[in-house]
Design brief:
about 110 residues; mainly alpha; 5 helices
Length: about 110
């Protein structure tokens, strides 16, 4: 009995149903969209406008920037160490003679 009442309630809920109506000019908008020309630029812009593509591009740019910054810091540290070793080597008497450009050997 309870199940029969439940089925009757469901069937009675369809009594006031009406046909769905679209917004004004909906058919015109759909037809215009279907007849739109699809050239290279419209397809490209529709792909680029997607959020996934934009996020991937942003992540790749940030990754390249971080890589270049880390690489530049490593090169700078290497140059600093090499300059320090060079200054230790050139602190002897020969460095003074080599750096004196006005010295005349013919005297």
């Amino acid at each position: 009995m309870k199940q029969q009442d439940h089925i009757e309630t469901i069937l009675n809920s369809f009594d006031g149903i009406q046909r769905a109506e679209s917004r004004p000019f909906m058919y015109t908008r759909v037809r215009a969209r279907l007849s739109e020309e699809s050239n290279f630029w419209t397809r490209t812009s529709s792909i680029i406008a997607k959020p996934v593509v934009a996020i991937c591009c942003l992540v790749s740019v940030v990754t390249v920037n971080v890589y270049l910054i880390i690489k530049a810091n490593n090169e700078q540290n290497t140059e600093t160490v090499a300059a320090g070793a060079e200054s230790d080597i050139l602190q002897n008497e020969n460095f003074i003679l080599a750096s004196n450009n006005s010295y005349d050997f013919n005297k």
